[in-house]
């Protein structure tokens, strides 16, 4: 089987069959990662450039490790030390890189739609590693794989709550596309000022402003951080007040009368959206998410390289 698309620009563009194929392939690569020798020659003749115009730790390292595990040749681009600081355009930068015979571009950019722009102008396969507040498709895929490992392969009917700063979260956007496509039930919860008004028109999701009610309803809670770097105006009184009203802590979880699974895409603002005793507690699968990120990105790179051979 092959993907129906030559790029991974967003979950919005994937079919249910595409998502299933990526997750099944990732599960196979997860087995490879448990072996003493974790490297396979699948992309030995493929050259990939990691084009990151925004700071990143987990995503960048995860892609780099996935590429190395697949035996690909890699180039790492840092915007802070590139000719873009001298006024070179994004397209000129990428075309110069492509002249070095690059097959695939993994791209993170602060501008929503930047990977889509590139995909229209260059022949290499594009993988969106996060664009502005639009999408972060591989994060949603690794979270889906993590939920499958916890509850079983079928996501249909699974109740997932996405909590926090929805307005500025590309993870939330990709999560909503993926989970609703796969038949899961989704509730969005957080302050009214951080939840876009259009959500219930654009997605088959519920909106809840009471965090405890959302947690009582769900099987899985994906807790998002407040993206302070994207706030251009105050949307809540203070981080302390946010923690008191919308933060997830052990006392709150113990009051539910049920056990739920806690996820977080990282980085965590400890003591704001999530307390440490929850982030590091037995209900958390935050670190397994990071491990699954490598397997998912291996699957995406492998499937897109096959599609473009």
What is the overall pLDDT average? Answer: 92
**Global structural class:** alpha/beta
The succession of helices and strands, N to C, reads HEHEHEHEHEHEHEHEHHEHH
How many structural units, i.e. domains?
2
Q: What is the makeup of the main sheet? A: 5 strands, parallel
How many H/I helical runs?
A: 12
Low-confidence stretches: none
CATH architecture call of the largest domain: 3-Layer(aba) Sandwich
User: What is the CATH topology classification name of the largest domain?
Assistant: Rossmann fold
Instruction: Give me the Rg, rounded.
Output: 19 Å
Binned strand content: 5-15%
The geometry reads as globular
Q: How much helical structure, as a percent, in the residues?
A: 25-40%
- From the N-terminal CA to the C-terminal CA, the straight-line distance is 14 Å
CATH superfamily of the largest domain: Aspartate/ornithine carbamoyltransferase
* Largest beta sheet: strand ordering: 7-6-5-8-9
Secondary structure: number of strands: 9
CATH class descriptor of the largest domain: Alpha Beta
């Amino acid at each position: 089987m092959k993907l129906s698309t030559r790029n991974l620009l967003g979950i919005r563009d994937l079919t249910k069959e595409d998502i299933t194929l990526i997750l099944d392939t990732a599960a196979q690569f997860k087995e490879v990662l448990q072996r003493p020798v974790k490297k396979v020659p699948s992309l030995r003749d493929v050259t990939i450039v990691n084009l990151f115009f925004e700071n990143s730790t987990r995503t960048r390292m995860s892609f780099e490790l996935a590429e190395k595990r697949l035996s690909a040749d890699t180039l790492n681009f840092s915007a802070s030390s590139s000719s873009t600081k001298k006024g070179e355009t994004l397209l000129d930068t990428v075309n110069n890189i492509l002249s070095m015979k690059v097959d695939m571009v993994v791209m993170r950019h602060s501008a929503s739609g930047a990977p889509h722009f590139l995909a229209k102008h260059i022949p290499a396969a594009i993988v969106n590693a996060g664009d502005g507040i639009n999408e972060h498709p591989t994060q949603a895929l690794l979270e889906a794989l993590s939920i499958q490992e916890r509850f079983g392969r079928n996501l249909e009917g699974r109740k997932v709550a996405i909590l926090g700063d929805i307005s500025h979260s590309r993870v939330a956007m990709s999560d909503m596309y993926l989970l609703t496509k796969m038949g899961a039930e989704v509730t969005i919860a957080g302050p009214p000022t951080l939840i876009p008004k259009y959500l219930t028109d654009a997605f088959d999701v519920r909106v809840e402003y009471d965090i405890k009610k959302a947690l009582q309803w769900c099987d899985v809670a994906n807790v998002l951080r407040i993206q302070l770097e994207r706030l251009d105006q105050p949307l809540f009184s203070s981080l302390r007040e946010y923690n008191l009203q919308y933060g997830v802590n052990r006392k709150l979880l113990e009051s539910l009368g049920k056990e739920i699974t806690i996820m977080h895409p990282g980085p965590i603002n400890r003591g704001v959206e999530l307390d440490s005793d929850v982030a590091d507690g037995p209900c958390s699968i935050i670190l397994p998410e990071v491990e699954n990120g490598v397997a998912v990105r291996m699957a995406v790179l492998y499937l897109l390289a096959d599609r473009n051979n």
